[in-house]
């Protein structure tokens, strides 16, 4: 979901961006008009996310899934080893992909309880010789979210923040690399933002593909080839909207309020339960179910008829899932809460 104001602004500029006579979709990425869009968006992101000067902000393609390969290709060479925490579907895919490039250890896994919790610091089995430690901040399918930054000593942390980036303040200096697909909180699908500490680039494995080399992308400021221009423009509009919400701290208050409202209704209902441990619950993806597949199917069918979309849970876990990313207005969550209450009463 994108903010309505952003869609309206993009629509108004779709055929003639600020008197240029062109749509942003038509511009050369080397043109002065687009370079200003690019530079302004990059600067605004650095300001809003408080990215230190020794980190580069890259606008890439390939989604977070591309980073599953790009991270080990660029970082594993230091010791040939890395630690991964597997707390859901996508961190598990990343863990398996990394095994192609080095000795990958499972620092923690929540699979023993069907990924309904986030491991605590004392449950992490960390190797001080690891080239990096990897985790996924928010697990969209299972509805869990890390509420702390792991302490890994001198080992750089790599974090996939695809589904909760810009929803809460982050101390970027605690990380080596942060990356995120744009399609949850930032822009349409097609853009991946990577925040890379400069000293970690330039140590890639010798067979690293040209377009998956952080150093290449840093040296060319994300423009070795044509970047996803339209998505970068849309990111810039979303960042302007985010400033109007009070920046990242303001958005954190809004998103936590929405999530708390929804969890309260579920916890106080007769029919519905949330399997996720309370201190591991996601503010972005709220999973819930009735305990009856038949009732779950009825809820999804009736909610769809009432105008709600995409509430059916992922096929691997079933039940329901409400994704309440940054652009979801409070009113939308209020309406869902009312629907849950009515369903709970009538069934």
From TrEMBL:
Q: Where in the cell is it found?
A: Cytoplasm
Against CDD domains, the record matches this protein to: PSAT_like
Q: What is its EC number?
A: 2.6.1.52
Q: Which SUPFAM superfamilies has this protein been placed in?
A: PLP-dependent transferases
Give the sites modified to N6-(pyridoxal phosphate)lysine.
Answer: 184
Annotated Aminotransferase class V domain ranges read: 2-336
Organism domain of life: Bacteria
Q: List GO terms (cellular component aspect).
A: cytoplasm
Annotated GO molecular function terms are: O-phospho-L-serine:2-oxoglutarate aminotransferase activity; pyridoxal phosphate binding
Keywords annotated in UniProt: Amino-acid biosynthesis, Aminotransferase, Cytoplasm, Pyridoxal phosphate, Serine biosynthesis, Transferase
Please give the InterPro entries that the UniProt record associates with this protein: Aminotrans_V_dom, Aminotrans_V_PyrdxlP_BS, Pser_aminoTfrase, PyrdxlP-dep_Trfase, PyrdxlP-dep_Trfase_major, PyrdxlP-dep_Trfase_small
Question: Under which pathway is this protein filed?
Answer: Amino-acid biosynthesis; L-serine biosynthesis; L-serine from 3-phospho-D-glycerate: step 2/3
Q: Record-annotated residues binding L-glutamate?
A: 30
Task: Give me the residues that bind pyridoxal 5'-phosphate, please.
Answer: 64-65, 90, 140, 160, 183, 225-226
What does the record list as GO biological process?
Answer: L-serine biosynthetic process
Essential cofactor(s): pyridoxal 5'-phosphate
The answer to whether UniProt assigns keyword Amino-acid biosynthesis to this entry is yes
The cofactor remark states: Binds 1 pyridoxal phosphate per subunit.
Family, as annotated:
Belongs to the class-V pyridoxal-phosphate-dependent aminotransferase family. SerC subfamily.
* Quaternary context: Homodimer.
**Function description:** Catalyzes the reversible conversion of 3-phosphohydroxypyruvate to phosphoserine and of 3-hydroxy-2-oxo-4-phosphonooxybutanoate to phosphohydroxythreonine.
What is this protein identified as?
Phosphoserine aminotransferase
């Amino acid at each position: 979901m994108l903010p309505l104001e952003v869609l309206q602004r993009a629509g108004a500029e779709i055929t003639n961006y600020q008197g240029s006579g062109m749509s942003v979709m038509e511009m050369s990425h080397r043109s002065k008009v687009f370079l200003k869009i690019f530079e302004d968006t990059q600067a605004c992101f650095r300001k809003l996310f408080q990215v230190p000067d020794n980190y580069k902000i890259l606008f890439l393609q390939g989604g977070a899934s591309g980073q599953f390969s790009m991270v080990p290709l660029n970082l594993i060479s230091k010791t040939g080893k890395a630690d991964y925490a597997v707390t859901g579907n996508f961190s598990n895919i990343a863990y398996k992909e990394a095994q192609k490039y080095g000795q990958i250890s499972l620092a923690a896994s929540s699979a023993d309880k069907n990924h309904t919790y986030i491991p605590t610091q004392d449950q992490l089995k960390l190797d001080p010789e690891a080239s990096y430690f990897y985790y996924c901040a928010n697990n969209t399918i299972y509805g869990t979210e890390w509420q702390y930054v792991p302490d890994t000593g001198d080992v750089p942390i790599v974090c996939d923040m695809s589904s909760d980036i810009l929803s809460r303040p982050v101390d970027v200096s605690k990380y080596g690399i942060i990356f995120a697909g744009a399609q949850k909180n930032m822009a349409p699908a097609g853009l991946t933002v990577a925040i890379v500490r400069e000293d970690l680039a330039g140590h890639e494995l010798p067979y690293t593909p040209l377009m998956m080399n952080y150093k290449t992308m840093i040296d060319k400021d994300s423009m070795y080839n044509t970047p996803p221009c339209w998505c970068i423009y849309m990111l810039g509009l979303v960042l302007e909207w985010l400033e109007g919400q009070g920046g990242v701290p303001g958005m954190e208050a809004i998103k936590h309020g929405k999530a708390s409202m929804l969890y309260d209704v579920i916890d106080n209902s007769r029919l519905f339960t949330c399997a996720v441990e309370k201190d591991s619950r996601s503010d972005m993806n709220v999973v819930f179910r009735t305990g009856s597949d038949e009732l779950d199917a009825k809820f999804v069918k009736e909610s769809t008829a009432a105008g709600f979309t995409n509430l059916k849970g992922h096929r691997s876990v079933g039940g329901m899932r409400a994704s309440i990313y940054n652009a979801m207005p409070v009113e939308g969550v209020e309406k869902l809460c009312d629907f849950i209450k009515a369903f709970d009463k009538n069934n």
